[in-house]
Amino acid sequence: MKKRILMSLMCILLSLLMVLGSCGKSEETEKEPVTDTTVDADATPETSKEKWLYLNASLPLNYDPAVGASSVDSSIMINVYDNLVFTEIDGTVIPHVATEWTESEDGLSYTFKIRDDIKFHNGDPLDAYDVAFSMNRALEIGQGFSYLWVNYVDRAEATDPTTVVFYLNKTYGVFVSTLTRLSILNEELVMANKVDGPYGEFGDYGMNWLSTNDAGSGPYKTESINIAENVTCSKFDDYWMEWDENAPDGFTFQAVNETATVRTMLGNKELSITDEWQTQDSLNAMAEIDGVEVTNIYSGAVATFEMNTKKAPTDCIHFRKCLAYLFDYDTAINYVYPGTKRTGPISASYEGSDPDVFLYPFDKAKAKEELEQSKYADNPGEHTVEIHYSADVPDEEKLALLLQEAAAELGINVTITATPWSTMIANAATIESTPSISVMYPSDSYSEAGSVLNLRYHSATTGSALQFEWLQDEAIDTEIEAALGEQDKDKRLSMYKDIQSNLVEACPSIWVLEWPEQRAYRADLFTWPEAEAEKNAPIMGRCLYFRTIKFK
Amino acid sequence: MAGFKYILKRMAWSIFVLFGLSILIFCIARVIPGDTATMALGSTASEHAKELYREQNHLNEPLPVQYFYWIGDAVRGNFGNSTQTKRPVATDIKEFLPATLELIAFAAILEIIGGIGLGVLTARKPGGLLDNSVRVTSYLGIATPSFVWGILFMLIFCHWTHLLPTIGRLSSNIVPPKNITGLYVIDGILTGNTAAAWDAFKHIIMPGTALALTGIAQSARMTRASMLDNMDKDYVSAEIAAGIPMRRVMWVYVLRPSAIPAVSMIALDIAAMLGNAFMVEQVFSYPGVSKYCLNAILNKDLNAVVGVVLVIGVSFLLVNIMVDIISAFLDPRIRLQGGTI
Fold it and tell me: Which of A137, B72, B97, B284 shows the greatest Cβ crowding within 10 Å of its Cβ?
């Protein structure tokens, strides 16, 4: 009997071992893709690690530039891929892969001449066909930053190796600025690695392969990707721009989120730059470490209380204005996020931001006046104001508490809920599920105010986490579309200002403060131009451009 | 023969349990609010892209049809693609599960040796110095969550003494060993890559110990209590009277029946660690399946959640069967009565 039991036990142990074995087995039997690239999951960079940057981030990444759109994705793209145009630290758009461009008289086509001396990481030359392929691929996949072009760009065509033409459906005055988000891919390499997929002759458009490989020509090339653990890139020696001898040899993003771990690693110099989501308490503690400094990089984000304008009680404009007057902005600026500044709907970092736009002051008397005009004046406590904030950003709760405390004085009942980010996205799907107020820090992709206005307040983005306001204002939509289509820049910037005034009047949001990226970094090891700049480009991920960092 | 039938019966029941579990988690995953396509592709994805995603994943079909598509793929090991990693969930599980299993194996060894060993030692002289010390530290072990131990270890061994690596599964300058089992320590030894084996072992020490401490404390207390119960029995007095050395009486004759509750507890604790290790994995940025599952839940990565929950469910069932077999081995009454005791 004992033997039988022992036999059964061994059978189960054997099955467990077989499961383990299959877990560990490499996919040797699968078709080997064409990997004319440097990426090797098992490889260890041979470069010296003396001038190496280590950063923490939330992984996994979306490594395919047609898919990724987060802050970390953007940081990787800017270092691994090249773009037709490049945004300087201060937000100025300058030629990059493109040497010059012309716009047709009707504004419906743009012709770019491109450099002929750029090589991809695998040594292939970069040409106009690659540029056209990258745009057409982004349009077809329809994810990531493609929202910048899907409604405007019809197609891209290369007429010769150094000329590419973009054909538009309608005028798009900011088109050139948006190209800072078009990462140029090596067409031949991508298509050599396609597998079956939904895009007809293009298969999966290389999406599967690009999720763990790069096909770029940027200053850094991918060394290894352990998808949920780390991403390591090293200097691309054949990069077409000059290298400073003290530029970083490479960088590694590591999946570390725990505050105590981040602090320990920064202290041990195992981390060079932290992510931007550390709490104020943690930043204060890290600032005490010798050699560590904390940045205040204004990259366009505005801490915003987004009010659901279609659900009681925030459906009433006077009630919304009452809440805007009830917010104690000075306390937020001086104590919650010390050293920050106030702003209207658009961060001062964007071109077209209106410095003279009306800012609601903290004024309880005015708040009371507005409440009295509101349809909820008789019983302001009847409808609870629910504030949801991202559970990943605990400092947002402090902002919510400020409003809760002031609102209580007028009999307004405010509840505060920490919500996982994915739930916030789900909540945004319908008017009914969207809370009265959602606390967000939106920023965007190119350096004009239209970028934010379109993404945040146009009706096209309702039902997504880009807009919790459900503004759905036809007049605002028309104004935004007209501004984006305007080819004269001065006129366009002026139109942005009008829209901002109208938004302030409609008061769909409480614009609390301009939120800086506060990252602790080892200032004793390297100089970081973006951290020291007076003005930064309002472009997500731009401040982590590593080529210009210099080790001491 | 009765024992063999008993095991077969348990396995047959396990299939029913798994079937029920699959329906339950599939339904939960599908009724969670939010558009699955938007969750997967992001807020900025075009309508065309979202519709393509829905078609590819049969999301436009009625729920029962979706289930049959899903279960058909699942039995072939295809749980669909993860919306976070953009690759098959099965590939993710193959990568992350061995990391957690390696961590749990280390914790399990500590629990078995430490918990049962301490239980026996303290039972030898109840009320003695060792017993009292273990009792106090046990309370500390039981009351303190594993992630707190993790942070404490990190402070001592990383920040102050720099003795152990802070995060991950392997240092960046170490080449991972060739895959055989997926467990780096074992693979490193099997392939002669001792540097990798040693480095991987150093990476496991802190998270593994943090994970094991609560279990050690509980099993030590349980073994001690059970040992003291059995030591009052007549057969123990008879063995002592017969001149059998006390050490042999304790470690052979008393431990065997006394170990059953502790073994059951340790085994279930080990199975539970697959799902519970996320805090420790988070603190040490250890790329395990538990942390993967946590991120999947937070990001509503439903395919990944369903895949991992099924794997954890299977592990629980296997461990339960193993516990029954071990208990039957330790206690003849269980196997003779078909597991009714």
Answer: B284
Confidence band of B3 (pLDDT split at 50, 70, 90): low
Which residue in chain B has the smallest CA separation from A24?
B182
Which structure tokens are listed for A144? 């990531």
Q: How many other CB atoms are found less than 10 A from the CB of residue A210?
A: 26
Q: Which of A28, A71, A143 to mutate to test the interface with B (most CBs of B within 10 A)?
A: A143
* Spatial distance between the Cα atoms of A422 and A523, rounded to a whole number of angstroms: 35
A313 cis-preceded (ω within 30 degrees of 0): yes
> pLDDT: is B121 or B35 the higher one?
B121
Fold of the CATH domain A45-80+218-299+517-552: D-Maltodextrin-Binding Protein; domain 2 (3.40.190)
Nearest-angstrom CA–CA distance, A171 and A260: 51
For B115-136, how does the pLDDT look when each residue is reduced to its tens digit (9 = 90+)? 999 999 998 888 888 888 888 8
Picking from A214, A218, A247, A182, the residue whose alpha carbon sits closest to that of residue A51 is: A247
**Of A245, A248, A250, A254, residue with least CA distance to A223:** A250
Is A53 within 8 Å of A251 (Cβ atoms)? yes
φ/ψ region of A80 (left if φ > 0, alpha if ψ in -120 to 50, else beta) reads: alpha
pLDDT at residue number B319: 81
Domains and their CATH numbers in chain B: 2-74 (no CATH), 97-336 (1.10.3720.10)
Question: How far is residue A391's CA from residue A388's CA, in Å, rounded to a whole number?
Answer: 9
Between helices B146-154 and A259-267, what is the axis angle to 10°? Answer: 10
Is A64 buried (19+), middle (13-18) or exposed (0-12) by CB count in 10 A? buried
CB contact under 8 A, A4 and B1: yes
What 3-state DSSP class applies to A38?
coil
Domain edges within chain A:
45-80+218-299+517-552, 82-207, 302-514
More confident residue, A519 or B321: A519
Q: Which residues contact A164 (CB under 8 A, 6 or more apart)?
A: A111, A112, A114, A128, A131, A132, A156, A157, A158
Residues of A in contact with B99 (CB under 8 A): none
A82-207 and A302-514 share one fold: no
Q: Which of A289, A276, A234 is nearest to A50 (CA)?
A: A234
CB < 8 Å to B7, chain A: 8
Pair B80, B26: CB distance under 8 Å: no
Buried (b) or exposed (e) across A88-98, using 16+ Cβ within 10 A? ebebebebbbb
pLDDT for A88:
93
Q: What value of ipTM does the predicted structure carry? A: 0.76
Which chain A residues are within 8 Å of B85, Cβ to Cβ? 60, 211, 227-228
**Is A257's Cβ below 8 Å from some Cβ in B?**
yes
Nearest-CA residue of chain A relative to B331?
A: A2
Looking at residue A426, its pLDDT comes to 83
Binary contact (A264, B158; C-beta < 8 A): yes
DSSP secondary structure letters along A244-302: -TTS-SEEEEEE---HHHHHHHHHTTS-SB--TT--HHHHHHHHTSTTEEE--B--S-E
Max distance between CA atoms of chain A, in angstroms, equals: 92
In sequence order, what are the residues at sequence separation of 6 or more whose Cβ sits closer than 8 angstroms to the Cβ of residue A341? A333, A348, A513, A514
Higher pLDDT, B40 or A130: A130
Q: What is the mean pLDDT of chain B?
A: 86
- Gap between the Cα atoms of A106 and B188, Å rounded: 66
Arch. (CATH architecture) of A302-514: Roll (3.10)
- In CATH, the number for domain A82-207 is 3.40.190.10
Search chain B and give the residue with CA nearest A428. B34
Which residue of chain B has the CA closest to A465?
B43
For B165, the token pair is 């690596």
Q: What is the distance between the alpha carbons of residues A297 and A278, in angstroms, rounded to a whole number?
A: 14
